[in-house]
Structure formats: C-alpha cells, structure tokens
Write a structure and sequence with these properties.
Layout (H helix, E strand, L loop, with lengths): L1 H14 L6 H16 L5 H15 L15 H5 L5 H5 L8
C-alpha cells in the first residue's frame, strides 16, 4: 500500500512538474486573504489548518498507513486505540 501511495505522489508531482498545483495556490491565497480580514485570528485553529495543509502537500511524511489511522469505533472503544481519534482528522482516504 505504501508503494501505491508513492506512485500516486510521483504521478501528481510529474503532472505538476514539481511545483504546487495552481488551484491549490489560489485556494491558499483566498484563505490567506480571509484570515487577514478577521479581527481575531485564533492561533489553535490556524495551527491545525497548517498541519492539515502540510500533511496534504507532503504525504510522504506520514509514517503510517491509512488503514491504521482510519476512524474505527470498535478499535477505539474496545482496543483503546486513541490515536485514531486524532490522526483520522488529518489523514483522508481520498488523498
């Protein structure tokens, strides 16, 4: 499964020629403009957004498989696998 992710990452990188996707760049610029207009900028929310963006842009940093962090209630309740509550918010299956 890790090999499949690496191949998808390489294909995406080839498609973008090693740069950032233009659509993503426009979305980031729009997000930055909206944050600048806010009178109060919540630091915790901005930090979590930054982590989400970093994980999305550099999915090779993720040292685990998607199946090990997906939200699985039985494993959380009966296996006390609490990391799934946190990590499932940052890793998305369609990435």
């Amino acid at each position: 499964r890790t090999e499949k992710r690496k191949m998808a990452f390489q294909q995406r990188r080839r498609r973008n020629r090693g740069g950032i996707d233009p659509t993503l760049m426009l979305l980031l610029m729009k997000l930055f403009a909206q944050i600048q207009q806010m009178p109060y900028k919540p630091p915790a929310t901005l930090f979590i957004m930054g982590v989400n963006i970093a994980v999305h842009l550099n999915d090779m940093l993720i040292p685990f498989s998607i199946s090990s962090v997906c939200l699985h209630p039985a494993k959380i309740l009966f296996g006390w696998d609490i990391k799934r509550l946190v990590l499932s918010a940052f890793v998305h299956a369609d990435d």
